[in-house]
Structures are given as C-alpha cells and as structure tokens.
Amino acid sequence: MTSELIKIAPSILAADFGRLGEQVARAQEAGADLIHIDIMDGRFVPNITMGPMVVEAVAKVATIPLDVHLMIVEPDRFLRRFADSGANSITVHVEACTHLHRVLGQIDAAGCRAGVALNPHSPASALGEVLDCVEIINVMTVNPGFGGQSFISGMTRKLRTLRAMVEDSGKDIEIEVDGGINVDTISIAIAAGATIAIAGTCVFQHEQGIAAGIEELRRAAALADADGES
Ligand code: DX5
Ligand code: ZN
Predict the structure, then answer these.
(1) How confident is the model over 139-197, as pLDDT tens digits?
(2) What are the backbone dihedrals phi and psi of residue 216, each rounded to the nearest 5 degrees, phi first?
(3) In angstroms, rounded to a whole number, what is the distance separating the alpha carbons of residues 115 and 133?
(4) Nearest to 113 by CA among 143, 92, 140
(5) Is 174:190 a contact under the CB 8 Å cutoff?
(6) SS3 breakdown of the chain: % helix, strand, coil, rounded to 5?
(7) What torsion do the CA atoms of 216, 6, 205, 72 make, to the nearest 10 degrees?
(8) Rounded to an integer, what distance in angstroms lies between the CA atom of residue 94 and that of residue 159?
(9) Among this protein's residues, is 227 annotated catalytic?
C-alpha cells in the first residue's frame, strides 16, 4: 500500500461539537478523504455519542463521503435512518449481529457501502463467509467506546491476515484501521495492509490545528513507504 492510496478519515468524535460544521469543512479543505462518524448507544459500548441528526448536520457541510461506524446493538433497526441521513457507508460490528449476512444485505439495499468491524478479540476468520457482501472491513485497534486510547500493536497480525484474505478473494475491499492512529502507528498499520486510516485525537486535537494533523499523518505515511522500498 502506498501513501497516495492511503485514505485519511478524520473521526469527529474528537471534534469541537460547538463548531462541528466549521471543523468538518476544515478537515475537508485539508484533504481528508472521508469523514468518520462514531455512533455509540451506551449498550454495545460504555459511551453514548450521536445519532442520525448529527449525520444529517454533517451531510449538509460535507462533500466527501460519510463513513458511519455503528457501535450499537441491533443495528438493523437503524440502518435506514442512517442511510437517509446521508451515510455513504455503514459499518456494523460482527459482535452485534446475530444475522450478519442479512444485515450486510440490508445496508446494500439501503444504498450504502457495507462495512463490518471487528473488536480486538474477534478473529479475522469471523469474516471468512461474508467477504462477498462486504466493501469495508474496520479493524479496531482499541476497544471501542472512546477516543484517545493507545493502539493495540498485536492487531497488526490480524491486519495482515485480513489483507491476505482480501487479496485471495480478488475483491476490492478496503481495510480500515480504527483507534490510536498517530504519526507513529500509521506506518505500522500501512505496512500491515490498511488502506484507510481513521484518526480522531491526532487530527481534531492537534496543537497546530486540523490541517497540521492531517498533513503530519500524510507525511508519516509517505515516510513509511520510503522505508518499505529501501
Ligand atoms: C473508537 C472509535 C474511533 C475513535 C478513534 O471507539 O471507533 O473511531 O474515534 O479515535 P482516536 O483516533 O482518538 O483513537
Ligand atoms: Zn470508529
């Protein structure tokens, strides 16, 4: 994976919600490829964040795709709402879906790209039978629920396994890495096969601002490529 192909997806979880529209616009101007929106219900994860109204508000400002990550139980109950609110892709958790195959079909039927996320404890093999219905795989590199946590380095093995599975499948499936991404960990994630880097804290809470945060990640990704080639 080369850095030109790596997509940067800022997660608004770390944004200033009092100035959300402005912050999304700034991330976009700075070259973000997607806007990642973390939906939490206080049941699947021990935190509550936002719902379809916020997705709708972001959709009014954004011209880049909205990547909606559902950390909720029974996600099938809300797919249509999120699709109607402006989501371009909807990711559900494998651990939250008894009938994952059906739910992925419902996301597709709602007109969105179907994504599936794996908690740190879930193996790559959990996706073996659904690769045909998936366009995005989200590899959680923290336990979901909060921004600002540390990257679990043991997840690189799973990233590599998934990269090999995707290549074997011959399908154009993107692999997201989500949690603890910064200038040090982005290169590790790229080397292991990630194609989309989701980053909250190091973009929206960067001391020099959002554009500097994105620029630093891009630079780190480019260096990772140079190292890989040498
Ligand atoms: C965690 C969320 C992540 C989070 C990443 O549950 O899924 O998307 O916003 O935040 P940072 O980059 O701060 O780890
Ligand atoms: Zn997320």
Answers:
(1) 999 999 999 999 999 999 999 999 999 999 999 999 999 999 999 999 999 999 999 99
(2) -65, -40
(3) 9
(4) 92
(5) no
(6) 45, 20, 35
(7) -170
(8) 16
(9) no
How many C-beta neighbours within 10 Å does residue 203 have?
A: 33
Q: How far is CA 109 from CA 16, 136, 173, in A?
A: 33, 16, 18
Look up 38 and say whether it is catalytic. Answer: yes
The active-site residue, picked from 38, 41, 67, 225, is 38
Task: Find the ligand nearest to 45 CA.
Answer: 1
Given the residues 41, 67, 178, 225, select the one marked as catalytic: 178
As for ligand 1, residues whose beta carbon falls within 6 Å of it are 11, 13-14, 36, 38, 69, 142, 144-145, 147-149, 178-181, 198-201
Closest CA to 115 of 157, 69, 62, 61: 69
Q: Which ligand is nearest to the CA of 142?
A: 1
* Helix H or strand E segment including 101: helix 100-109
β-bridge pairing 35-40 and 7-10: unpaired
Summarize pLDDT for 72-128 with one digit per residue, the tens. 999 999 999 999 999 999 999 999 999 999 999 999 999 999 999 999 999 999 999
> Full-prediction pTM beyond 0.90?
yes
Q: What is the rounded CA–CA span in Å between residue 171 and residue 114?
A: 13
CA of 117 to the centre of ligand 2 (A): 9
